[in-house]
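User: I want to check something. If I give you two sequences, will you return the structure for each one separately, not as a complex?

Assistant: Yes, each is folded on its own. Here is the first sequence with its structure:
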Amino acid sequence: MIKKVIQRLKELIRQNARTWSESYLRLRIMCPVKMPMNEARTISVAIPFFNNAKMAHVALFNILNDPRIAEIIMVDDGSDRDAFQQLKRKVKPFARKVKLFRRDVNLGAFANKIQAVELCSSDWVILLDYDNTLLPEYLDSIFNLDQWEDTTIYCSGYAYPHFNFRKDLGGKVIDLDLASSMAESKILNRPFFNDGNYFLPRNRFLQCVKPFWTYSVSASDVIFANYLWLFANNTLTVLEDSKYLHRVHDESTWLNNSEKSLQVIQPILKRIENKVSPYDCIDHDFGQISKEWIEPTLVSYR
């Protein structure tokens, strides 16, 4: 009798969860996480999404059951209907924690990231690409800090296995002066400055980047945001122990837009090198999208 019950439960699990990432029960068994003692802080995770539903769940690994993460905000940037429906099916089992938003109009990666951060309710946010995965060291390195400075963005020291920034940048606090000298001497680490997947203060970040949401910066939106951030007297702090799993795949935004992105990066580097204000003739360097700001709507899983 007991064997039949167990067998029936196994069949039900297989029917209702095609992959382990879509089952709370399996995640809790495989990735148990408890709130550390004397830790009361919680944060949000913002995940922009566009069209690659087969990888939509990978960003959820290691964060769904971490009590330090209060919510996960996913914003679909006008994906194809089929891709969006796949995304919706993948995240539906996690509706308690994952809030899914959609906008039928595609505004591009930069604007979509801004909206994802803006929809978060926490003061501090991890802005995470949907095809990357935070490793336990990433969250631990953040919460090991006694205090988070709202004038800095905390950056990962290792985008495993492709980009290891620890040797050259680990532990550094980068301001505009340092970034300028790096650009001038040609030692500026482009993969780092265009990497993203970082931990940021929500309100200050939006204050710095949202006024420029209309600019079309292709897959170089991260280095563009970093330029805006640094020019506003802020810093980038590289956490040496912070680590996440970085995926390079055929549908990677950077790979599909690399030539156009390099054209965008050059004027950004010149602006960083010469400390040129983003309010100084920025239209000469970057085009703008001719679309209105459209708020995404919360998706019902019913």
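And separately, the second sequence with its own structure:
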Amino acid sequence: MVRDDDLADVSFSMRDRVAVVTLDRPEARNAFTGAMGESLGAAYRRCDEDDAVRVVVVTGAGSAFCVGADLTPRDETFAAPTGRHFTSSPVQPPAFAIRKPVIAAMNGHAVGIGLTLAMQCDIRILARGATYGFVHVRRGVIPDAHSHWTVPRAVGFARATELLLTGRHVDADEAVAIGLATRAVPADEVLTVALTLARDLAVNTAPLSVAISKRLMWASPALSADDVNRLETAMHEHVMGRADAREGVLAFLERRNPEWSLSPTRDWPDDW
């Protein structure tokens, strides 16, 4: 398991089964670095493998979420890649691939890769007064981090085309209105709102059920209706009649918090 002191440009904490991963370069408004990408991926792996983690919240230190790539190298910022291992998605695994819900608590500006990485999360909460934009084409590159897949599925093809091809900024309220995010709140409330949601998920939702549903949600655009029905049927058969299916009903009827026992790691469906 990755240790906290193994992380660079990212910090990690956990309380009440909620992991908080913080992009931690406040002096640079959390401008993205290679070290940040490696650390964020390591933190995601830690959360995926640790059953003590029920929900992940990703946020930024200071007044910004992430203002995009670190431009310190100036005209060499986007120099031609060297070596055989270049990828346009530098955080591995991406947030959508881990088996825990990932909430982006976007406490301030998020542009470029700061926004495309947030689009890999399951839920996004934005700060009013901040700006958001896929500005890559205005910097001579193209949108990254699976954004040609994540953005159309969130907002539809027509809106995605406008956002990705123009690189224009949107504010939080417009972003919510078009489907880039689910909520817009004052900046100083973003983390509180995210943690409240995360703690509700951590207590009241069955971890294995959430993990399976998340995997189906992210896979569904590439599947036919029959494929989805086949997988939903198989996954119902995987969870029905087991401990959590009994516990969820009893906890509701007895008006108490559920005690979930199935695990996304121990009880994950074979070959899936």
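Because they were folded independently, the notes below concern the second chain alone. The CA atoms of residues 152 and 258 lie 37 Å apart. The longest strand covers residues 10-15.
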